[in-house]
Amino acid sequence: MTIRVVLADDQRLVRGAFALLIGSVPDMTVVGEAATGREAVEVTRAQRPDVVVMDIRMPELDGIEATRQIVADERLSGVRVLVLTTFENPENVMAALRAGASGFLAKSTRPPDLLEGIRVVARGESLLSPAATTMLIANVLSRPESPVRPTDLAALTEREREVLTMIATGLSNQEIAEALTVSPLTVKTHVSRILTKLGARDRAQLVIHAYESGLVRPRPEARGGP
User: Fold this and answer.
1) Is the pTM of this model over 0.85?
2) Rounded CA gap, 93 and 81, in Å?
3) 60 DSSP 8-state letter
4) What is residue 215's three-state secondary structure?
5) Are 179 and 185 in contact (CB under 8 A)?
6) Dihedral of alpha carbons 6, 10, 15, 16, sign
7) Sheet containing 51-54: order of strands
8) Could you give the CA distance from residue 115 to residue 21 in angstroms, rounded to a whole number?
9) pLDDT (tens digit, 9 = 90+) per residue, 90-105?
10) How far apart are CA 88 and CA 79, in angstroms?
């Protein structure tokens, strides 16, 4: 299956470079480009791609608000947003994930890693760069102690909580399957049920649920971020 991609960036040269990169592989194609956040929403609605590669700082609408509008549109339920920006800081990471982005990478990411990131997001999985993951944890740690909300996870079974904990530590379905001695298909079923029960869009939002509910506690060494 060919992954259909929309590129949203206010710099023509950046869009051109990404288009050339994506065009160099057989399993992807660029179906639209946008120079503003508003155009990104419009092009996405017109093309209904699999993945939108979204810059954060753009005119008219920034990438966060454009992501929020795309995710909120029921007609675009199958579209995933991969935020790609030079501004990798805790506020942007949290804002992007809360807006519904499925991934967050820095523009300094190596080309092969960007391509693989698009593939990961297109499969419905979440993707955070190591720096973004550290920032996410540091952001949670930097807040005043937030109340644990056990009702958030009350619907989960013990095994589903176990799977959620592993997701929050960054394990893939394959790695979770190996740790629990079950099949990857079984893990996928667990993940699907957890997403449904928590009303989460993807694994990135599950990570937020795990930390904010108190199910997972960040390690002290994560305090302070990169």
Assistant:
1) no
2) 13
3) S
4) coil
5) no
6) positive
7) 28-34, 3-8, 51-54, 80-85, 103-106, 127-128
8) 8
9) 677 777 877 888 888 8
10) 23
